[in-house]
Recover the amino acids of this structure.
């Protein structure tokens, strides 16, 4: 067996600790698996003295991740700090120094992935990022290798466990948004400041990573239309179910004739859709391609174990390649500036909930506004408002129409007297092909 | 770009034709993807003159697969004939001649996979078989690479589309076994002689392949306990549903303290289990491991498109490696003779349906036999027999107990006078951990 390979860990939080444990517990097995002994040389932590108990077997603890990332005796840098800075700088420094990098960082991969991958290729090293999307679900590897014969037409995913947990609580147990959030925070599924999850920022990062890979095109989170779940009410789930739908926070990337359609927002999906049965903190990714048809991968999207599964598999793959003296496989060329579809032109049916005055004529007034924009109504339900006696809840679903037409309908209804308040607007997953 | 690589196709049936079409239609894209031009040099067909229209671009048609498999100008042999012979001989000849092989052949991989893989390793070439299990579902790749950091504890799968289609028809539409079979045959989902599917032979081949890979141990189809679906009746589905279960033809491979537990048989699965929502010809594979928890992959298990997706991905991967002049990655060592669990000692709850005489005392008699073998009854349902007036249907479910105890109960009930006929015995997927 050849000389050992040095591992440098950046971050020993939940995931870093899990990776450290796995590497130590399975050292023998991993050595025979990849052909080299993997030696943990150094780890960057915030507070060295507080973590000193971990410094066994020659592991050096440092408070300086940039230093660990460029150590002479480190061959593979494992970045598990998260967030943009200093992780991004450390990854760049490691790649520039000729070290391969394994990361779980969705933000860096979303914002700087293509540039980092190009740098890795120039330096003849690898940047691996399976753990950055979907935890242990092997979606990156599957898109890169197993589906490489396909022309991928779409990727649909539930890739944020926090919002899916909250949505399941609202849907199954009738919890309000606020109660579902408190519940999630209590269980550690949501942060004290939950914005990254509930506003879809996390999901948009991950969709950008998936879309870049699936369509061989450079897209970033700013290219993803993003809406969070803050406006969902428990009763929307019951209405959706009566109409034959579940509501899920869906990340969708599709090729259309108008360009790449990239969206993250709460979506009504048919009850028979595989996404409708994904509950709790589970994640799922559905890929459609010209040969495969549709394949779905489901599993735990976060957590020490699942994320370690992905990180360590990447480490073993890189180590195995290095052990056999091989060059990294050449990357696929990327379209640096793909055409992006205009959201206003996307053709999709819509679910709308309004608070309307409980008086004669409202239905006719609304109907006229919809008709004037050419939007065809599929269903209407009026029920008493849950709390305001003079109001009613009006739930309208439309047939597929341009998203911009719905914008115009809503603009015209605002302040019109026919609508007191627009409650929610949710796109439905029965979009026409365009 | 370097010299082209020669492809030799064995078989131009449904899948072979699909692969040929994909290779021709996407020749440019595939060339830039793997770094070499892939040239279709020869194809083996049964009737050369009947297929002569396919002989364009220099493609030589031959009636001799062994000849195509060993041609000088062929670098990668793609075996899509199926069945054991002559496919097995051709694969061996190709590997011996220093050619890499891509196959979709579950029977050869199940019966001779380990020996063939060892031959490939000795000759410094690859044997790739993603398409042999689960069509386009990338389970082989996921087990080999993405989950390599895990200690896999179990693989559960619905991997035969024919039986799942029939089961769905019986379950959802109340069809009898015979009508479901005729329906499947009419649609081309079942053969005129359906034995390979309905008796679980196909599923046992595939489970042997998955188990060998998941547990790094040489197992063959003869090591898989196998029961088909011929004894299922439409009313079993209703009874199961009332008890909170769906029935699926499940292939299960588990590590237990007693060794490897490998079984293919109709199984009651809880309605909330992902397998319970897999319907029609879809396949699904669920893998559990110490880090990943559980991941599920679903998709089309057969058909030209999905199978081509897997075959061509393997071709591109091999070609890409060859183009970069690299050696194949070293294979993991296999346990050549793993301990196999004894079915009689496996601990599992059971669903039983009997035809019993509709008279006093039967319940007490049966209860006494169960009790004497230490089998604890979980539920009992008696209903009038659907066709015989003097008889009743008796449906019993037991708590988890040794499979051998159920054998002994059934032996004692046979010819006892308490039971006219044993209708069906189905294991339930709530087995205790052993």
């Amino acid at each position: 067996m050849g000389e050992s390979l040095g591992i440098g860990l950046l971050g020993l939080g939940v995931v870093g600790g899990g990776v450290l444990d796995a590497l130590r517990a399975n050292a023998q097995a991993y050595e025979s698996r990849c052909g080299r002994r993997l030696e943990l040389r150094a780890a960057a932590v915030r507070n060295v003295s507080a973590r000193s108990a971990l410094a066994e077997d020659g592991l050096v603890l440092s408070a300086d991740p940039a230093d660990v990332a460029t150590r002479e005796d480190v061959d593979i840098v494992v970045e598990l700090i998260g967030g943009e800075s200093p992780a991004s700088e450390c990854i760049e420094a490691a790649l520039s120094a000729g070290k391969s990098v394994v990361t779980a960082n969705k933000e860096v991969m979303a914002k700087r992935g293509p540039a980092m991958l190009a740098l890795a290729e120039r330096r003849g090293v690898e940047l691996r990022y399976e753990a950055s999307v979907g935890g242990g679900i092997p979606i990156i590897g599957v898109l890169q290798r197993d589906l490489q014969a396909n022309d991928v037409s779409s990727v649909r995913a539930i890739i944020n466990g926090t919002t899916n947990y909250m949505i399941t609580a609202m849907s199954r147990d009738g919890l309000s948004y606020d109660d579902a959030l408190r519940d999630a925070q209590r269980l550690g599924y949501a942060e004290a400041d939950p914005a990254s999850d509930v506003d879809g920022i996390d999901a948009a990062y991950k969709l950008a990573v998936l879309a870049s890979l699936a369509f061989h095109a450079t897209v970033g989170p700013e290219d993803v239309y993003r809406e969070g779940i803050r406006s969902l009410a428990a009763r929307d789930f019951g209405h959706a179910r009566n109409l034959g739908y579940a509501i899920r926070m869906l990340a969708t990337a599709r090729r259309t004739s108008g360009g790449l359609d990239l969206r993250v927002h709460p979506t009504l999906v048919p009850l028979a859709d595989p996404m409708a049965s994904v509950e709790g903190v589970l994640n799922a990714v559905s890929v459609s391609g010209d040969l495969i048809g549709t394949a779905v991968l489901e599993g735990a999207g976060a957590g020490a174990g699942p994320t370690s599964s992905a990180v360590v598999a990447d480490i073993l793959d890189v180590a195995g390649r290095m052990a056999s003296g091989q060059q990294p496989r050449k990357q696929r060329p990327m379209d640096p500036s793909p055409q992006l579809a205009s959201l206003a032109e996307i053709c999709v049916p819509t679910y709308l909930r309004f608070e309307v005055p409980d008086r004669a004529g409202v239905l006719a007034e609304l109907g006229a506004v919809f008709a004037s924009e050419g939007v065809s109504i599929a269903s209407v339900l009026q029920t008493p408002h849950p709390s305001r006696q003079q109001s009613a809840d009006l739930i309208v679903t439309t047939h597929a129409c341009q998203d911009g037409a719905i914008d115009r309908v809503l603009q015209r209804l605002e302040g019109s007297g026919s609508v007191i308040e627009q409650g929610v607007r949710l796109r439905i997953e029965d979009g026409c092909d365009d």
User: Anything to note?
Assistant: The longest strand of chain A covers residues 245-256. The two ends of chain A are 55 Å apart (CA to CA).
